[in-house]
């Protein structure tokens, strides 16, 4: 079952985020801010996947005009005004939930929500080293186009000392694939 993220889901979202992405991936204050930045015009663009009463996936999305551009945003290459583009922050699936199409379903419902909010496109930085490069594969399958590669996007000097990559440890060399999905 796919449904809107609720504040009651926050503990499970934080736990799954650390299991999949590493210790210090996100804290309660950051998740709370992301949650509110995903709501625009009364429409929530954040979703969870529930299977047998367990949260097995989540999609966090910033509404267009409700997030901050950073050094990894190649806005001039997007072809859209920054304020017309949402940000697909995180699509995370538990290991036992992978291979069932949940990532694509979460993206689809989030995309429908941001379109209803007024977005014209969505950008994301996808984890190239995700298991079987699933992040880039599902986003490409949904129509996403590669804009630019960003090596060491998730290094501690950018993420904070608490972040510990599940693959690299504290010296993360994972690549972020900046991708754009036009609606």
What labels describe this entry?
single chain; 183 residues; alpha+beta; 7-stranded mixed sheet
Task: Give a structural overview.
The chain is of the alpha+beta class. Helices cover 27% and strands 31% of the residues. It contains five helices and eleven strands; from the N terminus they run βαβαβββββαβαβαββ. It has helices at residues 10-21, 28-37, 102-117, 134-141, 156-159; strands at 2-4, 22-23, 39-40, 43-44, 47-51, 54-62, 85-93, 121-127, 145-151, 164-165, 175-182. A seven-stranded mixed beta sheet has the order 1-5-6-7-8-11-9, with helices on both faces. It has a two-stranded antiparallel sheet with strand order 2-10. Helix 3 (102-117) links the parallel strand 7 and strand 8 (121-127). The longest helix is centred in the middle third of the chain and has 16 residues, at 102-117. It is globular, with a radius of gyration of 15 Å. The mean pLDDT is 90.
Beta-strand percentage range = 25-35%
Give the helix/strand class. Answer: alpha+beta
Tell me the strand order in the biggest sheet: 1-5-6-7-8-11-9
Low-confidence stretches: none
- Helix fraction? 25-40%
Main sheet properties? 7 strands, mixed
Radius of gyration equals 15 Å
Order of helices and strands: EHEHEEEEEHEHEHEE
| Count of helical regions | 5
Q: Quick check: average pLDDT?
A: 90
What is the number of beta strands? 11
Give the distance, in angstroms, between the N- and C-terminal Cα atoms.
24 Å
Shape annotation: globular
């Amino acid at each position: 079952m796919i449904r809107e993220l609720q504040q009651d889901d926050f503990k499970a979202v934080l736990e799954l985020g650390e299991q999949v992405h590493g210790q210090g991936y996100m804290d309660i204050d950051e998740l709370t801010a992301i949650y509110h930045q995903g709501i625009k015009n009364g429409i929530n663009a954040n979703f969870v996947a529930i299977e047998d009463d367990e949260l097995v996936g989540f999609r966090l999305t910033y509404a267009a005009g409700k997030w901050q551009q950073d050094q990894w945003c190649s806005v001039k290459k997007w072809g859209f005004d920054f304020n017309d583009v949402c940000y697909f922050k995180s699509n995370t699936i538990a290991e036992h939930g992978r291979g069932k199409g949940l990532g694509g379903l979460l993206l689809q419902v989030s995309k429908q929500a941001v379109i209803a909010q007024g977005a014209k496109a969505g950008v994301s930085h996808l984890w190239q080293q995700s298991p079987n490069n699933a992040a880039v594969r599902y986003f490409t399958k949904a129509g996403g186009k590669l804009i630019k590669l960003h090596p060491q996007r998730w290094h501690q000097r950018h993420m904070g000392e608490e972040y510990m990559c599940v693959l690299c440890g504290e010296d993360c060399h994972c690549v972020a694939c900046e991708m754009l999905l036009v609606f």
